[in-house]
Every structure is written in C-alpha cells, then in structure tokens.
Amino acid sequence: MIAVKRALLSVSDKTDLVGFATGLADAGVELISTGGTTRALLDAGLSVRGVSDFTGSPEILDGRVKTLHPKVHGAILARRDLPEHRRQVERYGLELIDMVVVNLYPFQATVARPDCTLEQAIENIDIGGPSMIRSAAKNWNDVAVVTDPADYQSVLDELRRNRGFVSRETCYRLAVKAFLSTARYDRAIALWLEGRERRPAPRLVEEYELVQSLRYGENPHQSAAFYRRLGAPGGLPAATVHHGKTLSYNNLLDLDAALCVLRDFEAPTAVILKHNNPCGLASHERSIEEALRAAHACDPVSAFGGVVGVNRPVDARLAAIMLDCGFLECVLAPAYQPEALEALKGKKNLRIVELAEAGEPRREADRVCRPVEGGLLVQDRDRVPTAGYEMRVVTKAQPNPAQLASLAFAFKACKQVKSNAIVLVQGTATVGIGAGQMSRVDSSRLAVLKAGDRARGAVLASDAFFPFRDGVDAAAEAGVTAIIQPGGSVRDEEVIAAADEHKIPMIFTGVRHFRH
User: Fold this and answer.
1) Smallest Cα–Cα separation from 252: which of 234, 237, 269?
2) CATH number 2.115.10.20 given to 2-197
3) Where in the chain is the domain with CATH 3.40.140.20?
4) CA–CA separation, 92 vs 78, rounded Å?
5) pTM of the predicted protein model
6) Cα torsion through 328, 332, 337, 339, rounded to 10
7) Marked catalytic residue, from 85, 177, 245, 275
8) Is 274 a catalytic residue?
9) Per-residue model confidence as pLDDT tens digits over 67-93
10) What is the CATH number of domain 238-354?
C-alpha cells in the first residue's frame, strides 16, 4: 500500500477537479499545483501550494517551463525502498510527491479547428505534463498517477476505505493507463505534423477501440467487429440507432458509402445504395422529398433491400416517401422529427440511423486505408475539387447551360460508383447506372438498359477515359445528348471524332475517378 500525503495537480481538463481535490484535502493530502489549476482550487476555497513555491523557481518562458525541475521529478522518481535514494532525498531537501494528477494540453481539439495555425498547434504540445506522467508511471510502485477524471471517484473511494492509502495494484493499473495516454498524445502530434508535409509517413501507427462485436462479416462464416479510431471525431461510431436490429457489417459498409456520397452535395440530396454502389442519386434545389423520389425512380428494383441516405432532417412527409420505397435495410439522416420516427418505427426491422454530420460536406478523414496481404495501402481520399473541373469542350458541338449543369452533377455522381462506372443523368437525377464492369462499353450498355427510354435526352458521365469509340457509339444509339469524361486515352482523337459524327458535345475534365 502507498500512503498519499502530497499530490501535485496540473490539469487542462478541469472536469470534476474541485471535487477530487476537495476529497484529497479532506483525506489530509497536501495539494501542490500550477497555473490555472492553482487558480481554480483557490477560487474553490482550497489551500494549495504553487509549484514555484515548491521548487523555489519561477515559471519562465511564458509558462513553457514550470514543472521541469529536479525538485519535482526527484520527488516523483525517488524510490522509497532504496537507502541511497532516501539519503539523496534528505541531502537535497526533496519533499516526496505521492500522487500526480495530470491531463494534457488539448492538442487534438486545437488542431481539429479549421483555422488552427502551426504556431497554435506547437504551443499546445505539452512538455511538462507528459514528463510528470511518465515519471510517476515509471515509479508506480511508490506513486499514484491519475490522468483521467473518470478515475477520480474510485481513487477517492479507495483512499477513504484504506485511510489515506492506495494499493499497488491500483497504481499499476493507473500507470498502464498513463502510458497509453502519453502514447496516444505523441502519436496525435506526430501524425498531424506528418500530415502537413503531404508525403508518406515512414511508419503508420494508429489505435482503435472496440465499438461492438458484429454477428458476422460479409457472410455468416466470417467473424467481424466494429472499431472506432481514437481521436477521430464523429462518424459512424458516434451515430445514434433509433430503431431496428443491430447494424451488420454490410449495413455499416453501405452507410459509410452513403455518408461519403452525401458529403459531396450541398443541395438537398438523396441516395439509395446497394452493395456499396448507388442505385439512385438525385439533388433538388429546394425539395428533399423530390430528390428522394427521383433517386428511387432511377432503379426501384435494385433499391429493394438497400440503404437510403438524405442530407436533410426527416419529417413525416419524407418518412412516408421512404416507406413507399419498399423494403429497406437502413435509413440515414442528420435528424428525425418525432412523428417521422414514429412512422418509420412501424417497420419492425428497419434500422433508423441518425448521424448529425450527414449534411456537412467534406468533413471525412483525409486518408483511406485498405489492408492487403502482409501490408496496408494508404491514399488521400478522392475529393471533388472545390473550384470545379476543367470542363474543356473538345467537340464541335457545344453543350447548352442545362446540359452543363447536368454534366457537372453526373461527373460528381460518377465518383461514387465502382469502376468501370457509367452514369446517365436527366437534370440532377441519375436515370441509369452501370457499375463495376470489366469493360467500359459493358458499363455503358448496362446504364442504358437500366435507363430504358429515359436514356434519350440524358447526359453521360464516365469515371475514366473511353479506350475506344464503341462506348460513345453505344451512348449515341441510346439517345445520349452530351458526354463528360476525363480524357487521356491514346485514342482520344478517335473518341472525339465519334462524338463529332453523332453531333454530341463532349467535355474533358482531366480528373479521373476510379473507385475499386
């Protein structure tokens, strides 16, 4: 057992600080603290000794140096069981510290702000805090280290129960937690600084914690689990599931795909997904209800058993349209009105998912990771350029303004479809989607087949260049009136000539959107 007679408190997060410090004082523990922690304790009427009085040295360099002092670290690191340490404690007049209560500058919260500068980030890198935590955790056999306000009450309870003592088992557990906290902190700093350089990190280390075990993976014979990346804000791990069965592995994949789609559109937008591919996507300048109707009309057969996502709150009218879509696995929205929730809950197994950030564009992680045998592939996320595409007309025929608007929507929609991807659009709604075919002309034919008569007068987007003219010929035969594609094929001139033969305007963007 360790007798706690003196504690050093220095915290950025002051949650429950006063209550914990009061409990320590009531147990006869002398309190030492720094800066803002001292002010908070004094304001609460507690007796506290400033660290400058403890060390005999002032805080210097705008507070950068205050606890980096031999009297602090000697008092923490001294081993009580070694005679030579005890002699040095007496020789140098060290006052032993039995408990260290520290949490760190809010680096992660600081760099999460869009306007955070490098200077602000640097000034929120804690130095003294991690040093004290590591010193105390290293000497856990003699010192208790408390880094999480969630542990305050249990530590106080043990002190009261044991009349001023804490067990070494508790100190060991707290030390492990302390080393984890400094490891996460240093990792967050390193990853943020490396991320500014826009080059591959020589070593990628991230930590995840279990959210829930899943019934199975993609198939019943595969075990699966869902994890949250530590330090990541929001996302699917923070979603609220209002109703329905537990989310499955495949549900989570489709919900993530829906979220990625919705983040690319600021207008009222609805998407229906199946097997990680949109089978309908539409925007409407005013009405989310009309967007959903149009998205469903693209391919109502494929929509059966799919996931519906919208980037506007769901009211009773929108809920009714969702229910008219037939059997759905999940619905995703940033909010639900009470009457909408009540209506949707009428479907026994429908999973109703609320994700507050669903309507906020481009807040997703910058990096996409995919495991491969023996390694990991890492890439930047495919973002739609905020300034728009090049939109270079390469044909004799020129697109009219309505076609230009539809082509821009179609190319943005095409980004969300697995390659080879062909998307047919009327207005700002998909009418035919050809996804995941090994041949681009087959994707074109599939999109035309799905669109039927709606292909006539539609515009077409391709996620990559046409390697041959046959895709353009198939589109023209179906009645497509304009085409947008990246360009870049060795046969571009042949493809452009085909478009000219059919008197179809064609735009090159210079941007490819493969999605494997």
Assistant:
1) 237
2) no
3) 238-354, 387-508
4) 12
5) 0.71
6) 10
7) 275
8) no
9) 888 888 998 999 988 899 989 888 988
10) 3.40.140.20
